[in-house]
Design goal:
Length: about 170
């Protein structure tokens, strides 16, 4: 295994040796948000406007920072930095909003809700968990630092139902 030994002179002339293995590490952060949607043309209950308490697990992969003196030494990415990206791209927009496919007659309902001050998101796809997780992956990937890659997303709409996206499946 490839490794780097860092030696840093600390106060009182003592030495600290830190061994950092150059391994890829995955880190995951969980986000929650409440979102409504309706599936136009669907043959079950989900054709009606309804909502979910979504849980989004975001996993990124990279190597821990090894630069001596770097404030984020040992981190792949600061969890706070990952949180900022996901909140700005997903959570802040989707939380307490209703999502509709803009290419369906639901557009009329969406306009009525917007006119009444409701938060509405219009997308160009059927707002299923499968399509939402694809959309979320694209948004998050565009905002990650160059040395960090999106590994996977898991979007749960209930405790027992979820969609997963993996970079390895979409290369």
């Amino acid at each position: 295994m490839r490794y780097i030994i860092l030696i840093e002179l600390i106060k009182f002339r003592s030495f600290v040796v830190q061994i950092t293995y150059m391994s890829n590490i995955r880190i995951t952060k969980l986000f929650t948000f409440e979102t409504g949607h309706a599936l136009y043309g669907y043959d079950g209950k989900c054709k009606n406007v309804h909502g979910h308490s979504y849980k989004l697990s975001v996993t990124v992969i990279g190597t821990p920072i090894t630069t001596v003196g770097e404030v984020k030494l040992g981190m792949v990415i600061d969890f706070g930095d990952l949180k900022k990206v996901v909140k700005e791209e997903i959570v802040d927009d989707f939380d307490h909003a209703t999502v509709f496919n803009k290419n369906t007659p639901h557009l009329e309902l969406a306009k009525e809700l917007q006119d009444r001050g409701h938060s509405v998101i219009l997308v160009d796809y059927q707002p299923t968990s499968e399509n939402m997780v694809i959309d979320f992956a694209a948004k998050i990937k565009d905002r990650l630092p160059e040395n960090i890659k999106l590994h996977s997303l898991k979007l749960s709409e209930t405790e027992t139902s979820f969609a997963e996206w993996y970079a390895s499946d979409n290369a």
